[in-house]
């Protein structure tokens, strides 16, 4: 008699145990997804903060892209967008075809709608104007 009860009870116990482990694994997976969303949200906010700071510092600098503070912010903004692209997060700014020296002009174009593509070959260059001799 006890052998019959054991053969009935053992499979039911194993099924219950398997369902418990499956439920625990699903809870862990859902917690990981929530963590991923939080990390992605933080990265997007951090990248946006760096990119929003580029234009005011760029306008205030006398050296433009040669200013170390501008270069640091440009590099942080660019790196942030590269991270987002690697994680598969779509951002409002496409940086694939943009060089570091061109980034402030691209951000200005996105913010104001100005098309600065004709000046792209001059990005990051210093132009000296010499007076003409008479």
Would you kindly provide a written description of the structure presented here, covering whatever features stand out?
The structure is a single chain. By secondary structure, this protein is mainly α. It has one domain. Helices cover 66% and strands 0% of the residues. It has 3 helices and no strands. The longest helix has 59 residues. The N and C termini lie far apart (120 Å). 13% of the residues are buried.
Number of strands: 0
Succession of helices and strands: HHH
Q: What is the rounded distance between the termini? A: 120 Å
Sheet with the most strands, sense and barrel status: none
Helix/strand class: mainly alpha
Q: Report strand %.
A: under 5%
Q: Flag low-confidence runs.
A: none
**What Rg do the Cα atoms give?**
28 Å
Number of domains: 1
Binned, the helix content reads: 55-70%
Shape: rod-shaped
How many separate helices? 3
The chain-level mean pLDDT equals: 78
Provide a short characterization of the protein structure.
The protein is mainly alpha-helical and 134 residues long.
Layout of helices and strands:
Blueprint: H1 2-60, H2 68-86, H3 103-112
Brief descriptors of the model:
134 residues; mainly alpha
């Amino acid at each position: 008699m006890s052998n019959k009860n054991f053969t009935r009870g053992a499979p039911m116990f194993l099924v219950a145990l398997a369902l418990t482990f499956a439920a625990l694994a699903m809870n862990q997976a859902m917690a990981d997804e929530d963590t991923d969303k939080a990390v992605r949200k933080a990265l997007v906010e951090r990248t946006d903060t760096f990119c929003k700071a580029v234009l005011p510092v760029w306008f205030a600098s006398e050296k433009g892209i040669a200013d170390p503070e501008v270069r640091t912010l440009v590099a942080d903004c660019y790196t942030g967008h590269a991270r987002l692209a690697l994680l598969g997060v779509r951002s409002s700014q496409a940086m694939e075809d943009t060089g570091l020296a061109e980034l402030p002009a691209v951000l200005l174009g996105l913010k104001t709608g100005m098309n600065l593509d004709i000046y792209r070959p001059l990005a990051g260059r210093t132009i000296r104007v010499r007076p003409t001799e008479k």
